[in-house]
Specification:
The chain crosses the membrane at residues 53-78, 85-111, 131-150, 176-197, 209-242, 254-275. The chain is an alpha/beta fold. Helix content is 53%, strand content 11%. Strand 1 and strand 2 (123-124) form a beta hairpin. Helix 9 runs antiparallel to helix 10. The chain starts with a helix and ends in a 5-residue tail after the last helix. The structure holds adenosine-5'-triphosphate. The site of adenosine-5'-triphosphate has 12 residues, from strand 4 and helix 11.
């Protein structure tokens, strides 16, 4: 009797672990995964129970079918805002269960029943004891896969998406690709578990995979703790055991026990959300080994170590007018409904120089950055970086092409440490790719250590190495701006767009920030900054563009602009 409940607990815990990878790590709340388990269960029962297929082959097909289904549904649902994802997956879940119940070949509303005599590795699975090892093995397998994905550079990207998908994309990650990938992988895993679950039940029915199962699995994930897989196992086993304990130990009648279990799920969920929202077991930062300094690999050419080589003195710098044009924007326009946020913007950024965009609030400066970086697609116009067209490229590819940005509102990934924030920006970490993650060899962990070392050097560069292990949401505003600069630098992009790097930052941090930006410029990177503080602009910029009502209406040195009577009256006079 108890072994039977243990089988069930292990399988439901495996479902909770898979769903936790999607919900806890990637922040994608899907109600459809219980239905995917149903598709897995139906597939296995249909093939093995009704058509005599080997059970193992049926399980393999169940994984394949649910993975493909996950990709298809993910393509439709994941383009939507997250609040719609829940509703969309709920609709899919109802649709899937409804469709399964309409096929006579699948037993209609009663489903496929009476499945027995399934065989796995030469053993017939008849008694609850026979199912114990397969259930435990599936839980171990699902846990191993989810842990490998979650506690790796790949999982770090997932957490980045959970915290702020736009900021993560601005670090060069194909966030949509990651979302589809993790949706499909977790669909396949739940399909596998569903195949086992239906085998253990001896049936695949619409009622077994409906909304109550989805809610039970969510309760396990939330009570156990987001992004804590061991917590999901513990919660999965404990919550599943509530009903049998009520029945067997407290002699509650079976229908009442089921009801009490549902009520207890609700009470537990409420309690956890009120008292300990992170769940019983909290999320832990990924274990990252940062090599000691002597073992650290060489910094990239423009890396922080390059600063130890003699820097050109300002007097040696190429005059602004003679520097090469790295980025050129022509005729960029954008309207939002009735608002013209950008109007025919022409802009040139020259190598190793700082260009400032100034102008009143709402002039379109941030929109100009959005248009250059592909965050917003322009209605008209072109942007070329070293001669290659950027308009139409995905934002993450634009970063990889060499154009990175910071955000006016900083947008650090709050629950990640400073080191993780900066590591995410370091390009080419092979552990961010699933294929490399499961390949044999130690290349992935070595490369991960190198990425950590590179991120650490950028943190040192901005004077924040001491905060490497601090979660980003524990930083002061000035510190978070410095980490966001380190993050932009770590992308290795040649051109940096810095949105108000000094605003809201106290005086001591402003000096540090100015020194950092000047150092970056002196190393040959190209900087464009939006800034309201004219002292900052005066001390940093080689060239200044004045924007008003979406247009660049004047450009030159800051002194030339402030010397204009019209601009002095319209903007500078008020500074
Ligand atoms: N996604 C959007 N949808 C609608 N309107 C927008 C959008 N983004 C910007 N705008 C509008 O475009 C105009 C320019 O805004 P933008 O944020 O680019 O100005 P800004 O010069 O950066 O201002 P600030 O100095 O206050 O940051 C504003 O009127 C703003 O409300």
């Amino acid at each position: 009797m108890w072994i039977n409940y243990l089988d069930q607990a292990l399988l439901l815990a495996a479902l909770a672990v898979s769903v936790n990878l999607l919900v806890g790590y990637a922040g994608q709340v899907s109600v459809a995964h219980a239905a995917f388990a149903g598709v897995g269960g139906y597939t296995a029962c249909f093939l093995a129970g009704l058509h005599g297929w080997p059970y193992l082959a049926s399980l393999a097909v169940a994984v394949l079918v649910t993975t493909v289904l996950g990709v298809l549904i993910g393509l439709i649902a994941l383009g939507l805002a997250e609040e719609f994802l829940i509703l969309m997956t709920l609709a899919f879940s109802l649709g899937i269960i409804g469709v399964l119940a309409t096929f006579d070949a699948l037993g209609g509303v009663t489903g496929i029943t009476g499945v027995d005599g399934l065989r796995l590795f030469g053993r017939t699975l008849d008694t609850p004891a026979d199912w114990l090892i397969p259930s435990a093995v599936v839980l171990a397998l699902v846990f191993a896969v989810c842990r490998r994905l979650g506690e790796s550079p790949y999982g770090q990207v997932l957490k980045g998406i959970r915290e702020d998908a736009v900021a993560t994309r601005a670090l060069g990650k194909n966030t949509f690709g990651y979302k589809i990938g993790i949706f499909a992988i977790t669909s396949g895993l739940t399909g596998l578990v569903g195949g086992l679950y239906s085998g253990w039940l001896g049936q695949a029915t619409p009622s077994a995979y409906g909304f109550p199962l989805a809610m039970a699995v969510f309760a396990m994930v939330i009570v156990g703790g987001n992004a804590n897989l061991a917590g999901s196992i513990a919660a999965g086993v404990v919550l599943t055991m509530i009903e049998p304990v009520l029945r067997q130990v407290l002699a509650v009648q079976s229908t009442q026990a089921a009801l009490v279990q549902v009520v207890l799920y609700g009470v537990l969920l409420l309690l956890v959300m009120l008292v300990r929202p992170q769940g019983l077991f909290r999320e832990r930062p990924r274990k990252i080994a940062v090599p000691a300094a002597p073992e650290a690999p060489a910094a990239p050419a423009s890396g922080p170590r390059a600063r130890t080589s003699p820097r050109p003195r300002p007097a040696d710098r190429t005059p602004y007018a003679e520097a090469d044009i790295v980025l050129r924007a022509e005729g960029l326009s954008k309207r939002f409904g009735g608002i013209t946020a950008a109007k025919n913007i022409d802009l040139e950024l020259r190598r190793g120089t700082v260009t400032a965009l100034v102008g009143p609030n709402g002039a379109g400066k941030t929109t100009a950055f959005d248009l250059l970086t592909g965050t917003v697609v322009p209605d008209t116009g072109s942007v070329t970086l070293n001669g290659s067209e950027l308009v139409g490229m995905r934002p993450d590819l634009i970063v990889r092409a060499g154009l990175a940005r910071t955000f006016q509102d900083v947008r650090l990934l709050n629950r990640l440490t400073c080191l993780e924030n900066v590591m995410l920006a370091v390009p080419g970490n092979p552990g961010e790719r699933i294929g490399r993650l499961f390949a044999p060899g130690r290349g992935v962990s070595r490369a991960d250590r190198e990425a950590a070392a590179e991120a650490m050097r950028w943190l040192e560069f901005v004077g924040m190495a001491g905060q490497a292990a601090t979660p980003a949401d524990a930083l002061s505003y000035g510190q978070s701006k410095l980490v966001s600069l380190a993050r932009a630098l770590a992308t290795r992009a040649d051109v940096l767009l810095l949105d108000e790097p000094a605003s809201g930052v106290d005086a001591a941090w402003v000096e540090t920030m100015l020194a950092m930006v000047a150092a970056v410029r002196d190393e040959g990177r190209t900087v464009c900054l939006v800034e309201h503080d004219l002292d900052v602009v005066r001390r940093l910029s080689d060239h200044t563009c004045f924007m008003e009502l979406g247009e660049i209406t004047a450009s030159g040195t800051l002194d030339e602009l402030t010397g204009s009577a019209r601009l002095a009256e319209a903007y500078f006079g008020a500074q």
